[in-house]
Protein 1
Amino acid sequence: MNGFLPYGRQTIEEDDIAAVTAALTSDMLTTGPRVAAFEAAFMAATGADQAVVCSSGTAALHLAMLALGLGPSDTAVVPSVTFVATANAARYVGAQVIFADVDPDTGLMGPDHLEAALARAGDAQPRAALPVHLNGQPCDMAAIAAVAARHGLALVEDACHALGGRVANHPVGDVHFSALTMFSLHPVKAIAMGEGGVLTTNDRALAATLRRQRNHGLERSPEGFVNVEMAFDADGRANPWYYELPAPGFNYRASDVLCALGQSQLGKLDRFLSRRRAIAALYDVLLAPLAPVLRPVPRVAWGESGWHLYPVLINFAAAGTTRGALMRALAAKKVGTQVHYIPVHRQPYYRAMAPDLELPGAEAYYARCLSLPFYPTMTDDDVRRVVAALARHLLS
Ligand SMILES: *Cc1c(COP(=O)(O)O)cnc(C)c1O
C-alpha cells in the first residue's frame, strides 16, 4: 500500500457501523439508553465511580471548570505544552491561567514545574491545576498530588492522550490522584466517537453538577427543587413537567448515536493498544540507527503510556535541515507528521497576558518534537516506509 500515512487516524470496523445504524433506527437519537450504557462501560473500563459523557473533550474541560466552581477571581495552572483547549477552559469561566514549564525531553509537567508556577502566581494562589498526560505518557501523579495537597489545589487530569494508560497500579481515569479526569474521543485519539468527551470522578456531587451543567443547567431531581409551591402538588408529589434553573448551563450533551459508536469502540481499546504497543516497539528498533540526531521521546518510569502518539526528538541543526524542510520532504513521500504542540504561552492571546514569561523546558521540547504516523491499522511495512523516508532526509 502506498497511500498517504497521516500522523493518526481512527479505526472504524463493520460492527461499529452496525452499532451506529441500530442507534439511528431506534426511538431516541439524543438522550436514550446508549448514553447511560456507554457511561457504565466507561466506569468499568477505568474503575471510576462516575462517568459523564459530553459533546467533546473541550466541553469536558469547560464542565470541569464549572463543576469546581472556578470563576474570574480564580487562577488555574496549565502546562504550556498542550492543546490550546486545556488553557482556554479556564478562560471560559473567566479564570486566569498560569503556565507551567515541562520536562524538555518528555514534555510532561512535573512536581517541580508545578511548584515553580505556584511561586510565580504570588498572591493569586491558584485553585486548580490541569496536568496533561502528553503523548499518552502519564504525569508523575503521586508527586503532583502531593504538591496539590500542600497548596489546596484541585487537580483535573487532561487524559485526552492517555485512555488505556496507567500510573503505578492505577488505570488513568480511576481518579485516584485527582478530582476529575477528562478524555476526548475525537477520531485521532485512542477510540473514536466523532466528537465526544468523557469526565470521570469518584465524587457524586461533582458528577451531579457536571450532569446539570451539560443539560442547560437544569435541575430535574425533586430533592434539588427550591420553588416548592410550583414544584409539588398538594399531596407532596413532584409535578411531572417541572424543572428548575439554578443557574444557566450549556447544551453539551452527547447523542445516543455517537454513544453507540463510543461503546462499540471502547470494547476494542485493548486490541488497539496492543497494536500501538507493537508499532512503537518496531519504531524503537528501526529508528535506533538514527541516534543521536533522532531519538524517541524517553519513557517515564512511573506508569504506562496510552500510546496516543509516537513523537521523536530531532536535532535539526545537526542534521543540516529544518523541521519545515523535513515535514515537506516527508509529505512528498506521503508520510504525514505533526508538531504536538506549539507552547500555548507563545500564542498571541496568552502572550499578551504574560509578555515576559520564559519556559525553557517547553521551548526545548517544542524545538525538537515531531509526531510520526501512528495508529492501529498501520502495517509493519508502513512503519519501515516512514523510517526509510526519515533516514533518507536526515542522513543524506
Ligand atoms: C484533543 C485534546 C483536547 C480537546 O478535545 P476535543 O474533543 O477535540 O475537544 C484537549 N486536550 C488535549 C491534550 C487534547 O489532545
Protein 2
Amino acid sequence: MTSINSELIIDGKILRKNISYIKEKLKDKSKFMAVIKSDAYGHHLENVVKDIDDLADGYGVVRLNEAKKIRNLSDKKILLMQGIYSQDELLEAKELNLDMVVHNSDQFQILKDNNSYNNLWLKINTGMNRLGFEIKEFLEIYDEHLHDKKFTLMTHLAASNDKDSLSNKNQFKLFNDLSKKMNKDVDLSIANTGCIMNFPEYTYDWVRCGIGIYGGYFKDQEIKTAMTLRSPIVNIRQIKKGERVGYDGRAEAQDNMSIATVYLGYADGLPLKIKDGTSVMINNQIAEVFGRVSMDLTTIDISNIENCSIGDWCEFFSEDLPMSNIAISNDLISYYFMTGVKSRVKKVYKRTD
Ligand SMILES: *Cc1c(COP(=O)(O)O)cnc(C)c1O
C-alpha cells in the first residue's frame, strides 16, 4: 500500500554550518553550549547530538529525560537549565554528572541539604522577572555558602534581538557589576543567540545558543533554516470571481482563480491563525495561502504557478523559504513553528555523513 503524508525534513549539514558560522562571532575563551531543549527545538535530539557533538562544548536542556538521552551519546557538559525540583531529581542529576541551574532559594535548600555544591549555575534576575535570584538575596547566599566555590554566574536577556533596547543595557550593567564581586573561579554566562549576534562583547565564558543553530534567527541571511515542512497537493480546482474558499468564507476570489488543497492543517501544527497571503513555495515558485487553515487541509492560491499538479509538494518553510517569513508575516516566532509540528507528520532526519 502506498500512502501520502506531509513531511518534516531536517538537514544536519545546515545545523553544522549554522554553528560554525555563529562560533566565529565568539571571543576566544567562550565555550559553545548547544541548547537542545524541547527535542532540539523539534529537530530530534539524538540525531542532532550525533551530528554536532564535535562542534559543541556542552548541551543545554530543561528535562531530565532529555539529559539522559544525551548522556548515552556524549560525555560533554550537560546543563539542566531549570535545575532540579526535588531530592530525587538531584540524585538522578548527580548520577548523570549533570550541571544544574539554581534559580531560587527552594532549589538552593535542596542542594544545601545534600551538601552538593559542584557543577552549579547560579541564575540571577536582572530584569526578566521570570526565574533567578534577586541580587541582594544572591549576595547573602554567596557570602555564606559560595564565596570560595567554583560555579557559573548566569542571567538571561529579555530582548536580545533588539540592539537598541534599554533593557539590555540595564541587564548587562547589573550582571557586570555583580560579576566584579565574585571570586576568580566564577565563570560567566549571559548570551543566547540574539546576544551573540548583537552583543558579541558579552559572550564571556559560555554562550547558550539555541535558535541560531536551527536557523530561526532572522536578522542574518547566512543563518539558514534547517527544517523543511512540506505537504502534497491533494486537489486542484478552478473558482470564479466572487466565490469564497474555506471555513467562514474568509477568502473571497477577486478574480477567477486556481486553488490547490494541501494535506496539512492545524492538527499537524500549522497555526490556525495563518493569514491569507502568507508565502509558500510550490515547484520553486511563491504561492499564497488563501482561506482559513482547517484541521487537516490548507488552501493555496496557485493562479500564478506554472505546471502545478496533484502530488506536487507545497513547502511552508525550507532552506530557500526562511522560517522567519511565515513567522513574521503571522506575528509569530520561529521557535513556535519548530516546536509545534505534530507527530503525525513524517519526520525525516538527513544525517551529515
Ligand atoms: C532556551 C534558552 C536559551 C537559548 O536561547 P536562544 O534564543 O534559542 O538562543 C538560552 N538560555 C536559556 C536559559 C534558555 O532557556
